[in-house]
Design brief:
Elements lengths: L1 E5 L4 E4 L10 E6 L4 H12 L5 H8 L6 E4 L4 E8 L12 E8 L3 E5 L3 H13 L8 H18 L1 H15 L9 H32 L5 H67 L14 H22 L5
Parallel strand pairs: 3-7
Antiparallel strand pairs: 1-2, 1-3, 4-5, 5-6, 6-7
Amino acid sequence: MEILKCTTEAIESISQIDDKLKSGFIWLNCDYTEIDQAVALTEKFTEVKFYGRHIEDLKNYHHPCFFDKTIDYNLVIVRMIDNPAINDPYVITTHPLNLVIYKNFMLTVNLPTEKLHVILQNIKEDVNLNCQSTQVLANFIVGETVDEYLVLRKLFTDYNLVWQTRLLKLKSQFTKWHKFFRYKTILREFKVLCMDQQDVVDAWRKNLGLNISDLLSVRFADLYNHLKRGFRYFEQLDNELDSVFQIHYSIIGYRTGQIMKILTVLSSIFLPLTLLTGIFGMNFIYMPFLKSHFGFEGVMILMLVIALGSLTLFKWRDWLN
């Protein structure tokens, strides 16, 4: 558990919460094992009782993106990527990042320590950001988690190219359907995550009303646009794979048509030849040319002429290309 005192000048770590805070606000960060202790400290400092359902929400590791409000605080839950630097989309996982936002106090649950330090460093480097309120800081933290979705663009773009190459490969049969549809499911999951977080940010922004600072208004607009870009990106990748999937089956249909075309041409050539052999193979005693010395040669020459004539006709009709 980490306790930080936030002012417009700096953010500093403190050992215990000062009940007589004169300026700024308190930021308390904890993990799942410390929720009960963090809730007790929060209730003691703010003198506001947590709703029982909200405590259950904080403890739910599989909670979807969510926003709720009370008279005293806002509850914001977004999904955070566990390891955005990973190189395999099949093992990417997310966890909920919970923010309970009061006027002079903010509680974050399950914000990893390393990510917390990155956020503190980014706050120091952002000259346009000053922690004038808990809402500004909460917006900045959510923005940092949303940017991790955009980091995944190169990874998913590369994997899309891999799947496109495999699906459009004509010389081998595609068999990895289970893995392909698992990848499409992952794309759609991230698309839904971006859409759900758009709804959370929109509800959060509307709850604050019109009386917010220009800085916070700009940051909300930027955060919403980032989520919108993420949604459009994952939707575009999903649509591209759908198109390649349809092209794959069109190629299969074309190859099947070519095979059927060859078989049809061969059948058309051998059909009259089969007819001739069937006629002269009938068991009648009196048949023309049956006892002729040149009967076999004549029939063979006739069959050759028919075969060459059929090939010439097919070539002239351009049915062999």
